[in-house]
Queue: 3 jobs
Job 1
Amino acid sequence: MELQPIGPAHRRVANPALVKTPLPCPDPAHSPTFHGRSLPLHPPHQPDPKDLARLLTDVATGRISASDALATLTTGPLSTPHAADSNAAGGTATDRVTLDLDRQRRCGFPEVIYGDGKPADMIAGIIRAQQDAGQRSFATRVAAAVAEQVQAQIPDVRFNPIARTLTAGISEPPLPTPLPRSQDAAAVAAPAEIAHAAVVTAGSTDAPVAEEAIETLHWMGIPFRQFDDIGVAGPARLLAAVPHLREASAVVVIAGMEGALPAAVGGHLSAPVFAVPTSVGYGATLGGLTAMLGMLSSCASNVAVVNIDAGFKAAYLAGLVVRQLQRSS
């Protein structure tokens, strides 16, 4: 078996060179800088007390640095980075955003955009700010109409309509959707020698959540393999995948209905299993609540559960596990 690099064919284990190269981050010697809402202060010789108090609060809570606050007091209001994002009300689309550009230095990965309810101008403004800082951008739960508007402003943004995610700043070719099944693709050589995650679905209706997980791992630069449609209704399918799952460093298991698959998978593995209940199933599944309660009640001691349909959260946790192993190797 030969390890395949991630690319147009989208093999399940990525090129390890992609994940061993550290992401660019600000100089740790510099103070963290947070970019967000402009403060409408008066000239320095006559500051408004309320605005001054707000500025001091922002410094104390780390929203802006002391140097930025000093610049505001001496030169006037802070300017927003993209005046082109002005909306009809006369403000800017990012007026209510306090973007944490220091998160990559602290946490290893940039801030992720939760797109549900956010206008296209706001998402585009955040992506531009992250691009200016040399960071990869990732947005989840983005409606197709909003994604189209964002792409009109930033053409190199890629939208996955199944996962409802936007990515920018990733040089690899776009991922095909839907993705091919890993067990049908070429076998991977010695995957146990490379720390990687596995993404498992119980059924094909869990694909949107799995796609969100896969896009998350791709954005993180984490090697992974994908196993589709191996739910407990056909136990032979799971048993055939177990030898490959044992080679993974962390496993994301996505299931609806009664949510039995994570416990079944966990009983075969020594790796952590991050279970994702989905809102797939008939009335008694209560929109994923039944699956979530079943997963939380699992007696498999290596199973931890995230929220309903939270493919991003499970993949992010699995990615952190893999990254720690990469650092220790």
Job 2
Amino acid sequence: MQTTPRTKSQRPNRRQTVRAEFRRRTLGPISVVPTLLTLANLMCGFAAIHYASRGDVATAVFGWNAITVGGGLIFLGMFFDAIDGSVARLTRSTSDLGAQLDSIADVVTFGVAPAFLMLQLVEAYYGTGVDADATVVGPGVASVYGKAVWAIAAIFVCGGALRLARFNAETASHDERDHRFFKGLPIPGAAGAVASLIVLHQHLLYTRFDATESLAFDRIAALTIPVIALLCGLGMVSNLRYPHVVNRYLRGGRDFGSLVRIALPLVAAIWFLQETLAAACTLYALSGPLGLLRRRSDDDGREPAGTKPGEEFKPEGSEEDLK
């Protein structure tokens, strides 16, 4: 049976094929409110970097210095990051575009901004007494400590990027049941631990220490905060399990004791805002290794009835907890 050969006009056109594939992949309508909230998070990170670059100078924002304003903007970005996903689920507008945009914003606000804020803090106070124009932190400085601090900031940024990439690859869906636990320290938690300690440092420096004590306090903070940033950077790429605070503790019904445990830090923050913020963020960063130690202790001390020697004991409900 002979077939009539197709004319040149009937043959598939490569350009038309590419255009058809492009139209197929073009995004549909984009939800406005969740996208604006995610962009607000991104702008908070950009503004935090802007203020941090000015160093220890006074600003027009409540009279705070620029480093404190940068730390406060990181927490404002954390607020937008906490509600954009909830708003998207409420409006049934979750999408892959929103997830990717959220990760890009998080890298800037919770990765680059805290690392740069830490560098500026060390630059402003560790270099006290040296040439004002000299750079004390960077890959090309003479000081070993200055090189180490810059390397820690780079590790923090890379750890945050890897943490977000792994989360996007391993998360099954946008449902809340897939967002109850995190594998590794979440990047907002790592950023909160670093930023809260920097804000607390500035608060204590200007309210509790006089001129004779401030230099020693500056040097101590310059030694400890980068170490904490390094631990947080390593925690983001670990397999430690961390709870999702909003989905785990703030949704659904809770008993009276849980309500009291949530309300007490909020009440304490009215009088001791910086101290409460630093304590809460630090405890959350420590909850991963502390929870691992507690689970191992429970497994070692449990005597399951009916198990034979050498038989593996599987704790009840372990599969559900790990989902």
Job 3
Amino acid sequence: MIAKTWAITDVGKVRPTNQDCHFVDPEKGLVLVFDGMGGHRAGEVASLIAMETMSTFCREHWTKPSQTAEFFENYDANFTYETNLLRQAVFDANRAVLDQARARDDCLGMGSTVAGLVIHNHTVSMVNVGDSRMYLIRNGGIEQISKDHTLAEDQVERGMMTREEARDSQLNHILSSVIGVDGKIRVHMDELVVIPGDIVLLCTDGLTAVMDDNEILDWIVRNEPGSELLSRMVEEVNARGGPDNTTLAITVFGEDPDSSNLG
């Protein structure tokens, strides 16, 4: 199995600064997308701290120890080491952003979402916090494989709102879990066995604010995945008003039993 990743970020047409960022490590198979929030440039600070903390943590602890390491909080044996590593990296990022927010008045209340994955063997380990999303495109269909942490989604899970009602609800724009806002954080983690031909898309809500899932699918299946496709998708977002920063990272999986590459 081989994997190829392309990523792009764009400020859009309304926001004065880009508070999104992304990170791709070809050697480790690590792909991360962040969407910062907060006044002035605080959102940019939060997303950069989260990116630097998570990427550094994963690189430092990439090799699995002989025993479950002490740095893990609530290691879940139902998941691989790589999935637990990603979640722990989120916990560390949460503390780092929260500490900076408490230390600087101009950063008070800042935070960041994240959607991230690690590719290992034939498996994708994934985590997300907030409303940045991860989609699987397989056999001409699209499935959201991340979980939105919004008040609307929380209401759906409790049976207090239908999913159709949630789509049009103002609660859909209020996050219920964010990196750097609270000492306790909810992290969604999961694993996916990938097959040749699979495509995984990570994106911030700059994309999903103007495109629904079927439109996203149409763009991907009708075009060759790569940097040109991402640029054209960003152009389309901006043609529709570009109301927010937009960040996209797309990974394509192919068959190659003798080598592995991510770049």
